[in-house]
Amino acid sequence: MESFFIPPRICWWRVLFLLSIFQDYLSNMLDCPPTCICSPTEIYCNKSDNGKFFPLLALQDTGNNGNNSIEDVFKNITSIHIENWTGLQTLKDVDMELYTGLQRLTIMNGNLRGIQARAFSQNPHLRYINLSKNPLTTLSWQLFQNLQLFELRLEEVVFECGCDIRWIQLWQQRGEAGLHTQQLFCNNGASKIPLQTMNISLCDLPDISVTHFNLTVVEGDRVTVTCNGSGSPLPEVDWTVNDLHSINTHQSNVYWPNVHSINLTLVNVSRDDNFYMLTCIAENKVGMANTSIQLTVHFPPTILKLDEPERRHETCIEFTVRGNPQPTLRWFHRDNEISPSDYIRTEMDTYQDYLEGCLNFKDPTHHNNGNYTLEASNFLGVTTKTVYGHFLNSPFPDDYGDYGTPTPTITVTHRPEEDTFGVSIAVGLAGFACVLLVVLFVLINKYGRRSKFGMKGKKHSVLF
């Protein structure tokens, strides 16, 4: 019987030993606030506390673990529950910034009176916020504009009736963030009334309009688009141009009482902005309106890649071409255009303004050796690039010349105007050469006959 109980006793000692080590490690990493209970993923504070500061884990020395482990400790906190904290009156921008993985936040039955504008800017995963039973008098929608809230609890919060909370009324009407399931109230100065019955004039969402629905330009152009935001209160209006490559300037004009206009001018438009979405945003106390314009940039084609043949499932000359509108591709071998067949064909995919693909060869021989030229063209220009393709050695050593000699990769790009100019020069030179040949022919014909007669005369006198 004794031998039967020994293994479990040893096992329990091991478990207790490991738990003690793990507990020591956690205690070295963080200290939980005195009125809270903490786990690796949650801070739960439901005891009365008159502290003025948001609960923060007190960090201890982590030895060689470094800052990364400290960041992970805060990031792993997904839920914070604070209840009965009468000293916490303002939620500051810095209070929440360390808890980047936070998903649920509850601050209820306390004395919270205000939340700073960027309090949740570092908490993109927040889905649930409970601010019930706090003396909040106002709340801005902009606190939550970058969050995907599933639920916002505001029970027993009595706001001051006014334009500042009109957005809550609209969210409640639309059923957003679970507000339609809550009984919300505001104080109109005389009594507490249901929020749904609040009637505020000159307080609504802004309207927005733009001068273009779609914008098509040629690379290097200059263009101006205008966005008008109107409403009461007067909205703030701006274009968002993050990661735009083209040079851009903004000019703002206000037409009182309720129109705010902003002009966006693009200078030397870049091909890298093709398919860019220009977005205009109008915001006021009630909410936001936005609209977008797709920027289409036309530019001549360029051949970004043309590789030597590579053996795959079939033999491939890989290429990448960029241009808008989509370029037309033609292939030439020994200056003759290649027609698609079962043995040579082009396969390619399109992604935005890129063409990527292969000129595929099925069982190529030495007859396919030679220079291959890719021509890409659209209405803005033509470009060519040449690569030498060697597939098999010729069985006849002297037959090498029939297939051309290896030529380094050559790229030629020209526009239609340049072609016309070149043709004009060629025609002029050809005409000049013809005139010169005619003059030389006349002169030779005229003076050549005189010399012939003189020679005959001398010969006749000698014989005489």
Descriptive account of the structure:
The structure is a single chain. The protein is an alpha+beta fold. The protein contains four helices and 30 strands. Strands 15, 17, 20, 21, 22, 23, 26 and 27 form an eight-stranded mixed beta sheet that branches. The N and C termini lie far apart (about 160 Å). The N terminus and C terminus are likely disordered. One of its GO terms (biological process) is cell surface receptor protein tyrosine kinase signaling pathway. It holds the Pfam family LRR_8. Keywords: Disulfide bond, Glycoprotein, Membrane, Signal, Transmembrane, Transmembrane helix.
Write the topology of this structure.
Blueprint: H1 2-29, E1 30-31, E2 37-39, E3 42-45, E4 58-59, H2 66-75, E5 79-83, E6 90-91, E7 104-108, E8 114-115, E9 128-130, E10 151-153, E11 158-160, H3 166-174, E12 185-187, E13 192-194, E14 207-210, E15 214-218, E16 223-230, E17 236-240, E18 247-255, E19 259-267, E20 276-283, E21 288-306, E22 310-311, E23 315-324, E24 328-333, E25 336-337, E26 344-351, E27 354-361, E28 370-378, E29 381-389, E30 410-414, H4 416-463
Parallel strand pairs: 3-5, 5-7, 6-8, 7-9, 9-10, 11-12, 15-21
Antiparallel strand pairs: 1-4, 2-3, 12-13, 14-16, 16-19, 17-20, 18-19, 20-21, 21-23, 22-23, 23-27, 24-25, 24-28, 26-27, 28-29, 29-30
Keywords: Disulfide bond, Glycoprotein, Membrane, Signal, Transmembrane, Transmembrane helix
Protein name: Ig-like domain-containing protein
InterPro entries: Ig-like_dom, Ig-like_dom_sf, Ig-like_fold, Ig_I-set, Ig_sub, Leu-rich_rpt, LRFN, LRR_dom_sf
